[in-house]
Specification:
About 40% of the residues lie in helices and about 15% in strands. With about 325 residues, the chain is α/β, with parallel strands linked by helices. The strands form 2 sheets. An 8-stranded parallel β-barrel has the order 3-4-5-6-7-8-9-10, surrounded by 8 helices. The protein has a two-stranded antiparallel sheet with strand order 1-2. The chain is globular.
Amino acid sequence: MSFEVPVEKWSTAVSTITLGATADNGGTRTSTVTLGGAATLPFLHFEGQIPNRPVVAMEVLDTQPKEWPEALAKPFGNVLGDPAAWAQKCVEEFGAEAICLRLTSAHPDNEDTGPDHAAEVVKKVLGAVGVPLIIWGCGDDAKDNEVIPRASEAAAGENCALGTAREDNYKTITAACLADGHKLITEAPIDINIAKQVNILVSDMGLSTDRIIMYQATGGLGYGMEYAYSIMERARLAALGGDKMLSMPMLAVVGSEAWRAKEAKAPDAEGAQWGPQAKRGPIWEAVTANCFLHGGVDTVIMWHPEAVQLVKQAIDKLMQH
């Protein structure tokens, strides 16, 4: 008895975005990454084309992380206080395909650094690595509206991604993207309707939809994963069904979310039943990333080098067809 695999037919594909500008395009990057383009659900190669593999980026903070457990900090040695050296290590030793520079120090509750500091750090990181750069604010709206425009200006022409634009704070960062030729990351609180609304708002300012990457503020494995997955899947289904305002590639912040979980960050003395932290932490982060990849994200932003390797191996196998 023969069996025919049922094949779903889709009307369109996820839009495609390239990050990074090489010398031919007026930048200084030595490599670029292309997100999106899939004409089917994640990794269902028998249903449609998946022209671009998901991108694995690594996150770098612009200040020394204060509460990282030893299992997370140890692989980086003495570079955690130097964003440029940290980024270089991520690319050259751990295979990061892009760097996400988070301007954590600008937050008023942290070091309250200003726009000049942000611009200086961006220039140093751009000079240290040749991969595309994602520039992420500190999460305080007022400070981000001060530092992001200067950071954007410092990276003008490099075709970076700036994050994040939210429903109640999107005008300044969108204007910076328009002025300096960058892509924009729009953020929603695990809500597909708000995600669409933010995309409409930034589009109304003149930013074309093919310059937008969507981000849902998710949690790590065990902390609302099912709901986050379902929202991502709905967004992907909407894109394949022809909704232009939800057709953008998606991004997930994995490292910082996964390592908030007690199952990842608890020291061995407190989490003995879960095994050694040096093993369970990276696995927790890798499983979180793999779940989001199956939900449809095109880029994962990671922390631990072992988790990065596990996810890249998984992507290699999932892209075989």
